[in-house]
Amino acid sequence: MTTLLIIFAKEPVAGQVKTRFSPPLSLKEAAELYLCFLKDILEEMGRWPELHLALAYSPPEARSFFQGLAPPATRLFPQEGDDLGTRMARAFDWGFAAGFEVVLLRGSDTPDLPGALLLQAREVLAAGQAEVALGPSPDGGYYLVGLKAPQPELFRGQTWSTAAVLEETLGRAQRLSLRVHLIPSWPDLDTYDDLLAFLTRPHPIPLPGWRSDLMARKLLSQEGNLASPKD
User: Fold this and answer.
1) What are phi and psi of 41, to 5 degrees?
2) Which residues lie below 8 Å from residue 60, measured CB to CB, with a gap of 6+?
3) CA distance 195 to 193
4) How many domains does the chain divide into?
5) 231 in a domain, yes or no?
């Protein structure tokens, strides 16, 4: 069953991404670290031949940047819509219109997320065991959503960026009579505390997140907030 993985990504411009890493990082440093997130994600997701890759990018004029960043076979299209729910629903519409039977959508806040977890979601959906697959985050949101068909009502009217996003989504799925499968939880990196927790987990080359680990250690060491980077 053909599967498309859509990665939601922003152009790493200072002041536009990962602003809650600042302080202690500068806005420019936070953007440099987010670029490492993107590189780590594309490398790990590209290791799995079961997944066709697409980047849904923002802002619309960032296409040339992402063309230079993404692997050659990656499909590119801009995010469209005034809120996150609309952008997600339209991304799923794009994926299904392109002929894929399963569409997964993930964010770019989890640079060390292993691709094997996404394959779990793919397999459950492909086997018809659920209509929706979700990857919970400890902060109450989710890092992944997968579908077998467009479900625009699942995203309409949702309140985003709160600790109740997952709970509200599960309730909405129940009202829509959609079976949901939860894959294992994985933490987002949104705040400085999240970044410190990330650095307590080992990320040796070539494990997912190795670039982000090295860059975070380098930047935090420069700011005097962390011991020197590992050798």
Assistant:
1) -65, -45
2) 78, 79
3) 5
4) 1
5) no
Sole residue written with tokens 């697409």: 54
| Strand blocks (E) in the chain | 3-10, 51-58, 75-78, 102-106, 132-136, 142-147, 180-182
Report CA 69 to chain centroid distance, whole Å. Answer: 16
Q: Could you give the CA distance from residue 90 to residue 57 in angstroms, rounded to a whole number?
A: 13
pLDDT by residue, tens only, the chain of 231 residues: 799 999 999 999 999 999 999 999 999 999 999 999 999 999 999 999 999 999 999 999 999 999 999 998 999 999 999 899 999 999 999 999 999 999 999 999 999 999 999 999 999 999 999 999 999 999 999 999 999 999 999 998 888 878 889 999 999 999 999 999 999 999 999 999 999 999 999 999 999 999 999 999 999 988 666 544 343
In a domain, 12, yes or no: yes
> Coil, strand, or helix at residue 7?
strand
DSSP letter for 125, please. Answer: H
β-strand pairing of 75-78 with 51-58: parallel
What is the chain's alpha carbon radius of gyration, rounded to the nearest angstrom?
A: 17
**Domain range spanning residue 14?**
3-188
